[in-house]
Structure formats: structure tokens, C-alpha cells
Automatic annotation (TrEMBL):
InterPro entries: Chromosome_partition/occlusion, ParB/Sulfiredoxin_sf, ParB_N, RepB_N. GO terms for biological process: chromosome segregation. Residues 34-51 have a biased composition (Basic and acidic residues). Residues 78-144 form the ParB-like N-terminal domain. This is ParB family chromosome partitioning protein. One of its GO terms (cellular component) is chromosome. PANTHER family: CHROMOSOME-PARTITIONING PROTEIN PARB-RELATED (PTHR33375). It comes from Palleronia aestuarii.
Amino acid sequence: MSSRNKFGFGPLDPGSTASRRDRGVGPMGAAVREAAEDLHASTEAKVEQRRRNAEDAKAFRAAREAGRVLVSLPLDRIGTDDLPRDRLELEAVAVSDEMEELKASIRARGQKEPIEVYEDELGGYQLKKGWRRLTALRQLHVETGDRSFSEVVARIEAGESQRIARYIDMVEENVVREDLTFAEMAQVAITAAADPGTGEGDADAMVGRLYTALHKTKRSYIRSFVSVLETLGDDLRWPKAVKRDLGVEVARTLKGSSDIPALRTALSGCSDPEAQNRILGEFVSVSKRSTTPDRPAASRPKLEFHLGATKVTARQGECRIVSQDNFAEISRERLERAVKAFERELRAGSGGKS
């Protein structure tokens, strides 16, 4: 009986090496699978990117609300008239050698430190910190016409701030650099006290609010200059030139003095800082002489000095001369002449008194 059936093929031989049907993924299936895998990976990447974007946006909003975001602002949008500066003689600072050095640095390396501003009621910006940097950029823009100097990098104050806090922020920058004179710091206290927005009308008390971080001794010096500036007013034309010790002495002398009108008149006629300080020094000296009783001059226990290689020591009843000379080799007659000449000079200087 034939092993073949009506279809013409026999039973499969288990040991046969005939090729079997390939059950692997075909080209179309592979393409579909790759597309699905790519879609899945792309979806995960997009989800991760959205998560990162949300985190970045949240961090940016927090930084902006905290005033840590830097922006570029046109120079003409920033005013400097709302918050008085903490420096005297700003015109002199604007044309100083230090300003030229700052301009040279910005011209070569750009603005490295941002200024700080706050929004005013009109939607513009007012300067809080960085008057020198802003002035340097404005001068460079006028001098060069370069558009790179037409904007300034700034940090915008976050939220509503008390006016006294703005004064404190303004002065702290310069106090940390220690480039403010005591007269300048005193002027800030006087200006801030007169500002209705600070709620403090006493300049002496304002010193404690503005300069809390300073040592109490420095605050005492500032208060002395507050007294000097308030008493002498505009007649003190060069307050920055008044050194600390002189200012403290003048403040002490002004208390209870009846010569203040005369002092102000003398100061108003000064032509330079040296003349001003000389008048202030004389005012202190005259006051001390008038309040200090005359005292007999105290006798000195000993006087020593060198005359060339010779050392002289003088005491009551004794004058000792030490030198490299061998006095034993000098004749007695010569020594006597020297001693007599010495005595004559002493008697002549004392009016013949022995």
C-alpha cells in the first residue's frame, strides 16, 4: 500500500533535514516593534523633560521672588533721585581717578558686579546700590556711543521693602568696603532721619538703626559727626576732609559753646579744606586754653639726647657727656676752658641766674 496520500506527500520523517518554517519577526514586524520602542522611550523622555521644566520654572519663580535673578535694564529706565546717595561731593567722585579706573575695567572686562534697583510707583526703577557702576556705564555710553554700554546688569528688589531697609542696604555695601568717611555716614543718618518714609526724625537715633552692625565706638564717632554737621551746616564746606579725631574734638567743644556763630562765619570764608581744618583746630585749642587752669610746668627728671656721636644726659645738678674721645688725654687747661665756656653759655641762657 502506498504510503502517500491523495495529496501526494507522505508522512513527515522526524529525522528529516528538510528546512522548517522560520517563525522569526519579519522586516515589517521589526519596524513596528522598533517604532513602538522609540515611541515609548520618547514618551518617557518627554515626561522627564516636563518634570524638569516644572522644577526649573518653580526654582526660577522662587529666585525671582527672592531677588536673585539678574536682568539687563536700559540706563534711561533707572532713576537716582528717590533715595539720596550716601556719598558727599558726588560730582567730584564722578570725575575722580577712581572713576576712570572703574571705567577702564568695565571697558576691558565688562560689568562684573550687578547694581540693585527697586520699582517705583511709576513703573520705572530707582537705584539702591551701585551708583559708581551706573555712573561709569553712563559716561562710557556717552563717550563711546557703544550700545554695549547702554544697558546695565541689575538685580531687582523682591517684593515690598520698607524705606529704612533700603537705606540700610545702600550703606552696608560701602561700609563693608570701608570706603565711607564718618562725615558721609553721618550725612546718611541726617538725610534718612529727615525722610518721612523712615518714621524716624532723630538723626542720633537713626545712627543706631542704620549702623547696627558697626562697633559701638564707631557709632559714637558717627554721632559726633552728626552733631558737627547739624550744628555747622553748609558753612562746613568740606566735611569729608575732617579727620576722625578732629571731628570728635570739635563735637565735644561745640557742646555749650557760645562761639558757634563766629566759628560758622570763619568757616564760610575758607578757600580750601586745609584752611577749614586749621580753623576747626584753633577753635578746639582756644576752648581748651580757656577752660584749663594754668599749671606750673612740671620739672623733667632727666633729659637725654645725642649730638653727633656724643651722648648727653642731664639731671638735677648733673650733666654727663659720653663720647669716643679720651678726655684723660686732654690737658687740664683745655678742659677748664671748655667747662668755662659751657658755664657761660648756661648762664647767658638763664639770664645770669645760678
